[in-house]
Specification:
By secondary structure, the protein is mainly α. Helix content is 73%, strand content 5%. The protein is elongated and about 65 Å long.
Length: 230
Amino acid sequence: MDSLSVFLVLVCPFLILGFLAQMWVRSSFARWSRVGLSRGVTGAEAARQLLREAGVTDVKIQQARGSALSDHYDPRDKTLRLSPAVYSGTSIASAAVAAHEAGHAIQHDQGYAPLALRNAAVPLAISADKIVGGLVLIGFLLMMMGMKIPLLFLAAGIIYSVAVAFSLITLPVEFNASGRALAALTDSGIIVSEERSGVRAVLNAAASTYVVAALMSIAHMLFYLALARE
């Protein structure tokens, strides 16, 4: 098969899945954003309560200027940044997202090994991605000039395995944070039993994006290795 056919077979299906996963996240968040918590707790208040009950006292909670679903925990300065809709929202969706990010802060405080490994791997993954981008660009430019250097794509595939490993490490980190979020929201009384299904729906939708990202990284690695065999 030529390079386009290989791309369509290996990578394109996961690009479509990635788009669908993002649509699922947005639709799930939108749906459960319209359902208020019975206790009327904001996302910031929920995160603050969960951190306090976990004994985490040195994490700052800030309202971020980012767009919707830009919520994240930054381990470098121990800051939990929540988008406006989550920070001040009193919906099931805002509680789910805030609790998930609080879960990452609790992981960090407790020295959760997969999180520590992922944080340590971030610089390596970024560097690998840049190197692979350069190798692939040069490889395709040479192919357009009628020259083929399979070793470029072979090197790209091997180096990209770092990105694959990073994506796979991310999965237990995200699943664990979601599990912590659902359990903590229930145990703390922030949500009642009838609200668990909504929280779970939001967390499952978000988790799907990480699963697809991991599959896509594997597909890209196989794509580069397949090009090396042409």
